[in-house]
Amino acid sequence: MSVPVFSMSEYDFKAALKKTKLAIIPVGSLEQHGNHLPVSTDSLIAEYIARTVAEKVNAFVLPVISYGVSFEHKPMFNVSLRNSTLSTMICDACVSLSENRVKEIIILNCHHGNMGALQYVAQELHGRLPKDVRVHTIHYWHLMNSEFDHAGEVETSLVLAIAPELVRMDRAMPNSKKLSKLKAAYNTNVPGSFPKITGNGVWGDPRKATVAKGEKWIKEITTGLLKTISELDLNKILIYAYIALTCRYNKCR
Ligand SMILES: [Zn+2]
To answer: What is the pTM of this model?
Structure first.
């Protein structure tokens, strides 16, 4: 049972709180993803993964934070928050959730540029939360075996699987500048660095993207996230309860 916080009522909240104390905050960005993907790409992925996993582990899903730290895309389109703004926003949301009796919070990050801000959330929250409330930050590409890209094969496949109506494959083009160094040799945290490195703001080749690849990667990410949640101690109980219920349901059919 997923509980989308955006559309629930106070009544729904109280009823759901009897069944779960777990909440997922999806975090995305609003930035260029080439000429073929929407600027909301990271937010779309974050929300979709959060909802899919919440359905399985019985969790609240907060409205996606659809602005992130995207200065690296200047002068291409980006609406950016400073690191301190994003960090403050997320910390305040966690404190509020704890006051609403939520005990376990997962911050699901789907934008690389947010990593710096999210790195310090645990430190910022230290002493501000009751001892029985825990916050975990998870970056979705850590749940994948494939290489991370930007509007390339991976992200384009994911959006093709989630919202194909928003993808313009006829405009899909790979990076227009040759990437000649190892990934680690590029510093994409510098404002304006992304267009300088890639030429056209794309990292990878979106022409290789397919719906089937997107579905496969979504499965890989959601399975990885479920496994991670199961290793967060408290929620083992929730996952096992889900598996037990699913088995029972399938037998009944
Ligand atoms: Zn992205």
So the answer is: 0.90
